[in-house]
Specification:
The complex is a heterodimer of chains A (148) and B (745). Chain A has 148 residues and is α+β, with helices and mostly antiparallel strands. Helix content of chain A is 36%, strand content 13%. Chain A has helices at residues 20-27, 79-90, 100-113, 119-125, 135-147, and strands at residues 2-5, 8-11, 46-49, 52-55, 68-70. In chain A, a hairpin with a 2-residue loop joins β3 (46-49) and β4 (52-55). Chain B has a seven-stranded mixed beta sheet with strand order 9-10-7-17-14-15-16. A five-stranded mixed beta sheet of chain B has the order 12-20-19-18-13, sandwiched between helices. In chain B, strands 21-22-23-24-27 form a five-stranded mixed beta sheet. The two termini of chain B are 54 Å apart. The model of chain B is unreliable at 1-55 (pLDDT under 50). The chains are: A alpha+beta (148), B alpha+beta (745). Bound molecules: FE2/S2 (inorganic) cluster (FES) (2 copies).
């Protein structure tokens, strides 16, 4: 099947029910998208599918054929994504960094849909887990982009 | 795959893989365009060096530092970066003395080697030891390199060394205004010997030490470029998944559907491992699906098998066992005469406390990539906090000498104590075996479910307290028996008749003037595989002690903050810190009080002395729908001296989150010898909407440098529990709080 990732079409040979996460990581060798839990609990595997933050560990690849998928590798191709990354750096958000691909993409999806999110909007969108507890820095970075 | 290019460049471009006794010629030959600074000290055989003494003598600069032609530097750090910011701190320390902006550094975790045994003659990343143990050594590395560059410049310019100065990244000859970049001098400097004596910068002249220098890894980690062990890939690699025996003493017996599994997509082969089965496949998803489809009959291990998990083991049963274990135990701290003072006390307070097993829950699941090479060597990419220890055990597992095992230590997706050697809790022996069996490199990843099954847990803790008050309500005696097993003696050896420090720390070593004390360890072996969990014994013991302290204060009708101040009257460092956190929180008030939003709230305070630092913590809580909400946490921390206040603040935030997570939510429950939760759905960890505001004040007392990664944690559970008790009148003697129901308030 054809899978469109970061604007490029990939011919993928796998069963339809293979999670998109493992197609991205193993089949295509793009490792910025992380495996944390595999059951839609943590958000480390977040990608954008037609602009929506989506947990790729529970998304069968067959269900997204033909849709536009964005992974962290392409986040800075987007103007909002660039601002999010800059805010992440400015606020020194990452610690171990393992959750941050997902966090950055979740923030990018939010800010592309709503350039002026309020606190509730931020809380509703930024639900990915971070074991290092970078939550306050994440919220500060999202606010900075929203105000920026 | 840019980030991987470096990891898997041809061997000739991997100077860190060169043997210990490298000659300058080897290095220059290997580094291809990177001019390597430094030579071995004459006559100093790195392998034979007494490492503690080596740290005092001149460090072998070339082992740590390469200066490249573009005046950037590669620093081989003794420590692994796992979020705690140690890579940046190392660059700050070396850069300060070398006179090079830390931003010009690339930092990697060094391979096994004698040069890096800088933690009291050993090497590990843990115990919040990294910066404080290596501070002097790393400063000398930077200062020595700078001295060699100056010397090289003096020869080049034919001027006296004394006429030269440095500015970041270059040498300057003030009289003529000439400058030479470090990169242009590195080759000449490499021909010089490491100076025996160097002058270190005066603290007042620091440009980077003590400043909130930006993390070196922030951008890579915000753009998915940071590569962890789980991301490693090499040519020809297969991928593997395992299914462990549900209980630790079972072995794989018959397979009911082997043919079916073999025929599944991508499957290469099925393997029996000690206590597990594995499938090797082209893709991890194929391996995982296949191994989980495999129907295995698990058979009991032979009686007497080491560390066999009893089939009737439960956490509930464990708690009852600890409660029933009689004292007096092995003395850990004895001051005055607690027993006699208790007999004569006006009032006695007793209580028992407990805390559950905890999982690490680092977000990166464990993995290991093993590659056997044609020359009989083995490359191993493995998340680890101690490369030499992993090398030793990997060699044993592989049946080859340690020097044939090349350990690569990629950055860690969190660790919190997870990546030490814990029998049965590390995937690398399985990867080694699988790679040998299939004759190809194998990357093994444990699914999150397998990780929850085989993680090395924080042990369950249980303490019996007795305190005696005098007629004025002041505590005059305290007895505490910590019951259970600590991880330190489990993995580093038990001394007969000595208490395990990791079982009692945080109950012993408290600063309060309670003049009659007996703290003891009642050892009861833990059937579970136990390990180090961020702040180790302190993670629960300070909860026990500081929460009991509030019970004692209440029994004597003393305000808990005032009583602490009073009992710290002779401890200026602690008193200052307690006052600092009081001030930071706007002045101590216990409550209950009504907040501007109408909610009823209260505050709790706690102190801790973990890992060479001192910490005072205040938390403010309310109840919402019977559950505890923590609004604010104020932390005053005194690590003596500091390297990076920005990273300290981040680490305190992180420690508050983990401490709060443990206080509110976390508990590994065993039934029938098996942990019940297998993923984050059954083992919730702190989500973003339960994160409080965190306010940090750093107090630099000038005391010897203490740790940073762990110390922010221990004060959080007791500060929260004390606040909840103040709010509800209900004592909290057992965690997590999610087990308790509180009336709406
Ligand atoms: S890996 Fe997908 S949500 Fe955790
Ligand atoms: S930064 Fe480590 S899990 Fe979020």
């Amino acid at each position: 099947m054809d899978v469109i990732i970061n604007g490029k079409t990939h011919q993928v040979q796998t069963e339809d029910d293979t999670p998109l996460l493992w197609v991205i990581r193993d089949e295509l060798g793009m490792t910025g998208t992380k495996y944390g839990c595999g059951i839609a609990q943590c958000g480390a595997c977040t990608v954008l599918i037609d602009g929506q933050a989506t947990r790729s560990c529970v998304t069968p690849v067959g269900s997204v054929a033909g849709q536009a998928i964005t992974t962290i590798e392409a986040v800075t191709d987007d103007a909002v994504g660039r601002r999010v990354v800059d805010a992440w750096v400015a606020n020194q958000v990452p610690q171990c960094g393992y959750c941050q691909s997902g966090q950055v993409l979740a923030a990018t999806a939010l800010l592309k849909q709503n350039s002026k999110p309020n606190e509730q909007d931020i809380a509703a969108a930024m639900v990915n887990l971070c074991r290092c507890g970078t939550y306050n820095a994440i919220a500060a970075a999202v606010r900075q982009v929203a105000q920026g | 795959m840019n980030s991987m290019t470096h990891e898997f460049a041809p061997a000739g471009e991997l100077p860190e893989d060169r043997p210990v006794n490298l000659s300058r010629r080897d290095v220059l030959g290997a580094a291809l365009g990177a001019l390597v600074l430094g030579v071995a000290l004459p006559g100093a055989d790195a392998k034979a060096q007494n490492t503690a003494a080596a740290a005092k003598s001149a460090p072998r600069v070339s082992a740590f530092l390469e200066i490249r032609t573009d005046s950037t530097a590669l620093l081989r750090s003794p420590f692994v970066e796992g979020g705690q910011g140690v890579a940046t701190a190392m660059a700050q320390i070396v850069g300060e003395e070398l006179d090079m902006d830390p931003a010009r550094f690339t930092v990697e975790c060094a391979p096994p080697g004698a040069d890096y045994q800088v933690v009291g003659g050993r090497r590990f990343t843990g115990g919040s030891f990294s910066v404080r143990s290596s501070y002097d050594t790393m400063r000398r590395v930077g200062a020595s390199a700078r001295q060699m560059l100056l010397q090289a410049a003096a020869s080049r310019l034919k001027v006296p060394v004394a006429s030269l100065t440095t500015e970041p990244g270059r040498v300057r000859h003030a009289a003529t205004g000439r400058t030479l970049d470090y990169g242009a001098l590195a080759a000449d400097a490499a021909a010089l010997s490491v100076p025996e004596n160097v002058t270190l910068r005066a603290d007042k002249d620091f440009r980077w030490i003590g400043k909130p220098v930006a993390r070196l890894d922030a951008r890579d980690k915000s753009t998915g470029k940071a590569a962890y062990a789980i991301d490693m890939q090499v040519d020809g690699m297969l991928r593997a998944a395992v299914q462990h025996a549900p209980r630790l003493d079972l072995e794989p017996g018959a397979f009911a559907n082997e043919a079916e599994v073999k025929a599944m997509p991508g499957v290469h082969s099925i393997h029996r491992l000690p206590g597990a089965v594995a499938v090797v496949a082209d893709r991890w998803w194929h391996a995982r699906r296949a191994v989980e489809t495999l129907q295995v009959t698990w058979t009991d291990a032979a009686p007497g098998t080491r560390r066999a998990m009893p089939s009737d083991f439960s956490s509930e049963g464990r708690k009852a066992q600890l409660a029933a274990a009689p004292g007096p135990g092995i003395a850990a701290e004895t001051v005055g005469d607690a027993a006699a003072t208790l007999k004569g006390a006006a009032k006695i307070v007793t209580a028992t406390y407990d805390a559950p097993y905890l999982a690490h829950g680092q977000l990166e699941p464990p993995s290991a990539l093993a590659r056997w090479n044609e020359d009989g060597t083995l490359d191993l990419w493995v998340p680890n906090q101690a490369p030499e220890m992993f090398q030793t055990l990997a060699a044993k597992a592989a049946g080859i000498p340690p020097e044939k095992v090349k350990i690569h230590s990629p950055m860690l997706g969190g660790f919190f104590g997870r990546h030490f050697i814990y029998e049965t809790a590390n995937p690398f022996p399985q990867a080694i075996q699988l790679s040998r069996a299939v004759g190809r490199p194998v990357k093994l990843i444990w699914s999150r479910e397998e990780e929850f099954l085989r993680d090395a847990l924080r042990p369950m803790g249980f303490v019996r307290f007795r305190a005696g008050l005098d007629a004025n309500g002041l505590p005059v005696a305290l007895e505490a028996e910590a019951v259970g097993e600590g991880p330190r003696d489990r993995w580093f050896g038990r001394k007969p008749d000595a208490a395990d420090g990791s079982a009692v720390e945080g109950i012993s070593g408290k600063p309060y003037a309670i003049n009659n004390r007996r703290v003891a360890h009642v050892l009861v072996d833990d059937p579970a595989i136990i390990g180090f969990w961020r702040s180790v014994g302190h993670s629960m013991n300070d909860f026990f002690y500081e929460t009991f302290f509030d019970e004692v204060a209440d029994a004597g009708q003393q305000d808990p903050y005032d009583l602490r101040l009073r009992l710290l009257a002779d401890k200026p460092r602690h008193k200052t810190l307690l006052q600092a956190v009081g001030e930071l929180s706007g002045g101590w008030k216990r409550g209950p009080f009504t907040a501007p939003d109408g909610s009823k709230r209260a505050r709790g305070v706690a102190m801790a002395s973990p890992f060479g630092s001192e910490v005072a913590t205040i938390a403010e809580v309310s109840l919402r729908g019977g559950a505890v909400t923590v609004h604010d946490v104020w932390v005053a921390i005194d690590p003596g001296r500091i390297v990076n206040p920005g990273i300290i603040e981040a680490q305190v935030n992180s420690a508050v989150a983990l401490g709060l997570s443990s206080a509110l939510l976390e508990e590994v429950v065993y039934a029938k010898g098996v942990p019940q939760a297998r993923n984050f759905d059954g083992y919730p960890i702190l989500p973003p909407d339960r994160m409080p505001r965190v306010h940090v004040r750093i107090v630099e007392s000038g005391a010897p440098m203490g740790g940073i990664g762990e110390p922010g944690l221990p004060g959080v559970p007791p500060a929260v529990a004390n606040a909840v008790a103040a709010l509800t009148g209900q004592r909290i003697r057992s965690l997590p709080l999610s087990k308790m129901k509180f009336g709406a308030s």
